[in-house]
Specification:
single chain, alpha/beta, five-stranded mixed β-sheet, two-stranded antiparallel sheet, 7 strands, about 35% helix
């Protein structure tokens, strides 16, 4: 009996037939482990890259940070005394209607306009001074809706506030000493601006008169 004969087969001879033979293959579990590790590394890399992109997009630092990697600290510009005074004047809030005394004059041939207009302005919070016919220099001389007239110091505040109450009113100043301002009703006058529209106009005026931001020097 040959040493290659399996035990229990005795001395019998067996004959191998067929044209297929068993092939020895390497175990596949190592290859699977290697592929799994590589796939996991790729997935982690893609996840990390995606997270960085999302941070750049939502943080607003994407292309800007690449274009300018080093941000410079900006120092405020030096302000001269003249600029400081101008900014202080610009920061002066608009006057409230209750702080303004308005004289209402009628420069048209129609009667009753001054009294009716004065009553409406008083409802809107303005203080009313004189009410009557316009001075001779303006009587029947105002072709538009009206004129708001006051001292030069009132040009940037009180006159603008009063002008919001009458669309199309011209704004003029004179050399008067008092702080009172006039509303002179003209030929084209129909009615005051509605209270709602006047409030919107005052709000827009307040935004427009707000002091501009100081540009930083970089």
């Amino acid at each position: 009996m040959s040493m290659l004969t399996p035990p229990g087969m005795g001395g019998k001879k067996y004959r191998i037939t067929g044209d297929r033979y068993p092939r020895m293959r390497r175990p596949r579990h190592r290859r699977r482990i290697v592929l799994t590790v590589v796939a996991a590394a790729c997935a982690l890399g893609l996840a990390g890259w995606g997270s960085l992109q999302l941070i750049d997009v939502f943080g607003g630092e994407g292309s800007t940070a690449q274009a300018a990697p080093g941000k410079k600290k900006c120092a405020p510009q030096a302000v001269s005394a003249k600029q400081a005074r101008a900014r202080a004047a610009a920061r002066k809030p608009l006057p409230k209607p209750g702080t303004l005394t308005v004289n209402v004059f009628n420069a048209t041939p129609r009667s009753g306009l001054a009294k009716r207009t004065a009553d409406e302005l008083e409802k809107r919070g303005f203080k009313i001074g004189k009410v009557g016919n316009a001075p001779a220099s303006y009587d029947k001389q105002v072709k538009g809706a009206g004129i708001v007239l006051g001292p030069k110091a009132a040009a940037e505040g009180p006159l603008k506030v009063l002008a919001t109450q009458l669309a199309g009113a011209a704004q003029k100043t004179d050399n008067r000493k008092g702080a009172d301002i006039d509303l002179i009703i003209g030929t084209a006058f129909k009615d005051l601006t509605t209270a709602k529209d006047a409030e919107k106009a005052v709000a827009q005026l307040a935004r427009a008169s707000a002091p501009p931001r100081v540009a930083a020097k970089c």
